[in-house]
Structures are given as C-alpha cells and as structure tokens.
Amino acid sequence: MKAVQIMSFGAADVLRVNDVDRPAPGAGEVLVAVEASSVNGHDVIVRAGGLKMVSGRRFPIGAGLDFAGTVAATGADVADFRTGDRVWGMVHPRQRHSVAGAAEYVVVSATRVSHTPADLSSVEAAALVVAGATALIALRDSVALKGGERVLVRGAAGGVGTAAVQLAHAMGGQVTALARDRHAKVLTDLGAEEVLDYGSTTSDQIGPFDVIVDTVGSELHCYRGRLTKNGRMVTVGLSPSSLAAIAASSVHGSRRIRTFSANPETPVLRDVAGLVRSGALRPVVDSVYPLVDIAAAHEAFERGGVVGKHVVTVGE
Question: Which superfamily is assigned to 130-258 in CATH?
Fold first, then answer.
C-alpha cells in the first residue's frame, strides 16, 4: 500500500509516498481504508523535528494525524464496528507511528474512531476530526463557555478557528473573530457578530472578553490582559514562547492561560458528530490535494492565509 512517511526532519520535501506493507488489526483494533486526511499543525511540527520526544529520531515516521474512510477489517473484541462502516478518527498524537493517517490503510484502537456523520463526505469529515474536537474541548471543557458571554476567537479563519466560531455561536456566545479582513463574510456566515482585521487591530484596542480562544500562540500575555474579571483564556497554539506565557500566567487564577493536547477518543468524536447532525457545526475546506501532492499541502499550510482546512485525498 501507499503511505506518506517523513524520511528526515526538515521542510516539506522530506515527505515521501512510499510502498509499505499493509498492516493487520490486533485485538481491540480496526483497520481503516483511508479516503482522506487533513494537514494539522501537529503534522508540520513533527515533520520539522519539533516533537522528537514523541516521534523519536528513527525514520521513517508516519505522517497524518487524522483520517476518514471505511472499516476494512476488525480485530478480536471489537463489537461496535463492522467491515464497511464509515468512520473518522485520529492516531494517538503522543505515540510514534511509522504509518499514520496519510496512508491507504491505518490501524488504530477502536477507542479512537467513531461513525462518520452520514451527510459528510470523507473530505468534509477529515476537515472536522481535529478541528471540531479541539474546538469542542476548548469551549466546553477548558473554558466552560456560557450563553451570553463575549468570546474572542483569535486565528478565526483556520481549521480550529472556523470550528470555534461556529461552536461558540451555537453555545450562545457573542463572537468576535480576529482574522484577515478578506475572510469577514465567511466568518460572519459561520456565526461571528464582529470580524476584526488582525493586521490593523492590536490587543489594546479590543475587549474586554469573557472568553478568549487563541489558535496563534503569540502575544498571549497581551490578550490575557483583555479578559474580564472572571474571564478565561485557552490557547492551542503551542510554541516555546507560548509555553512560557502559560506557565507565567498561573498566578492569575481563573484568568490564567489554559492549554491542552487534543487527543479525542470515541465519546468526543460522537459529540462532534452530534453537533454536525444538529447543524451547529459544518466543515470548512480550503483546498484538496491528492496524496502524491502532500508536500504541496504542507507548504500551503505553512504559508497560511486560508479559510478552513487543507485536505489530502487517498486512492482514486
């Protein structure tokens, strides 16, 4: 089978589409015939060598955090899935993989997949696995958004950002989106009441906000200063500087900067599917690439300026 693998740490040209042995599921596992995978920040950081403690230094390393496709086979003790079921899910982000989501087949624990919403194509599903789960965990579990609260989504045009705008609106938040001005119409259609151009808007010109969802990871202390007395902030934009800001903010109690590593299992994926079925959440796809062009998809991700997700299709 074909699988995208990282052959050394570096720029997008270290990615190769290699011929590898098709894996077989063990007890409690499912084999998924992958139809689509998306490009996430995690994928780019692993490829560049920023997560060596997780990925290790032994090559090749599998590329692709998430996937959508159909169950090709199940191992022993798998009761909830059958061959032919449409599923979505993700590999474990804190484990090493020689084959991951950007491959024709991937084996994962049955606890890491869920049935795909019937109305979504595999491309649309792949665009929502990480983005939808991350936004849901951020708003529901990390900052516990309440109806009527003022919400700032920073980096609102990206994959997590577009999902966060939709979910914050569905949860009753008054949403301000910070993004490029040219993305204003899309973000308004997704539920933002106000869209501010990040190129001409500084942190001291806005707020205060009850909740801030940050996907960028820079200037965190400046934005934390725009919280209300009981405000909460969460960032998913992790870097050495953001980790330092997170640690320094611990003295501020409820107004500290929260973070988490999105690692959704079946219950969270089911919740995301329910939000799709209810109409509260829909995928936003910026562009679609064939598997052989995954390096170009990574390069496009790193250039930025997109609305939604870059998705890679697998197979015909």
Answer: NAD(P)-binding Rossmann-like Domain (3.40.50.720)
